[in-house]
Amino acid sequence: MAGRDADDGSRVSHFGANVTAPIALFVYNRPTHTRETAEALRANHLAVDSDLFIYSDAPKNESASESVQEVREYVKTIAGFKSVTIVERENNWGVDPSIIDGVSELCERFGRVIVLEDDLVTSPWFLTYMNRGLDNYRDEARVMQISGFMFPIEGFDPAAACFLTYSTCWGWGTWQRAWTQLDRDAKGHAQLSSDKRQRWAFNVNGAYDYFDLLDRYVQRKTDAWDIRWYLTVFQRDGVALFPHKSLVNNIGFDGSGVHCEASDLIINELAKAEITTYPPVIKSTAVWRAVEKYLYGMKTRSFKSTVKRLLRVGR
To answer: Scanning 31, 184, 232, 242, which has the fewest C-beta atoms within 10 Å of its C-beta?
Structure first.
């Protein structure tokens, strides 16, 4: 993919009295995970200024009914935000249609959104970082996402952010201008199929076969929204902002999720301080190489599932 690469130059953002972005939280049938996610989010410095929208999917079958109801009773008790709005699906939508609908709705209403699922524990500085990023780069067409997660790489300033040609869905945000470009039908699959170099780049320079996930969607073997979102970012030479030290930890790798098997991957300790340095829109070559090295070095069976889940965190 074309684009400028650099590792120098930055600008410092000072968060002011801007209106905070709405938060979309998608929940299903994991009351313990949901509670941990909500409590960590409530401990964020901007929680009290943020509108929280909770999307609760209906049970897929009878065996899920009790746990779904338990989650629904719990989310009614959530406080500590500017407002809490609960959307209870009457039928089981499944994680992908529910997320696409919820993100689309809030982007249309507010122009931007912060997105979480029910197994993501955030740093107290997560919302500050997300809102700063969404505000700083709102008019930068190439910037399509703000990502809260970062791989456990070392050697970089924990108070700084960077740009990568990659996207994840472990705590993220976007704008309507970017989300409306979502390649819902994966039309870009045809170009990748005929272009080996593009497939290599799409696969993080061979670190993981994301094209296989895209193939599975085209063959209707999966309904993953996030592989289509990554395709959208990739097609448009887009970039996402990442912190050098993760502001999000996934607690769902215990086999409790519908699409999430147990894993022995250990995410590094969450950032304990705010991100203060925000870069110009230039891909960080050094960080990208560190990410590639990390992925190549973790090619175990259990980690392959985890890498796949960096795009899809569904239940």
So the answer is: 184
Q: Is residue 5 part of a domain?
A: no
The structural domain count of the chain equals 1
Q: How far is CA 116 from the centre of its chain?
A: 7
Q: Which amino acid is at 25?
A: L
- Whether 4 maps to a domain, the answer reads no
Mean pLDDT for 287-307 is: 71
Structural domain containing residue 250: 11-309
Instruction: Tell me the CATH number at 34.
Output: 3.90.550.10
**pLDDT tens digits, 131-158:** 999 999 999 999 999 999 999 998 999 9
Q: Tell me if 284 is assigned to some domain.
A: yes
Residue type, 29: N
* Residues 6+ away with beta carbon under 8 Å from 145: 167, 172, 173, 174, 178, 233, 238, 240, 241
Which is it for the CA torsion 164, 181, 236, 199, positive or negative? positive
314 found inside a domain: no
What percent of the chain has pLDDT above 70? Answer: 83
**Residue 300: pLDDT over 80:** no
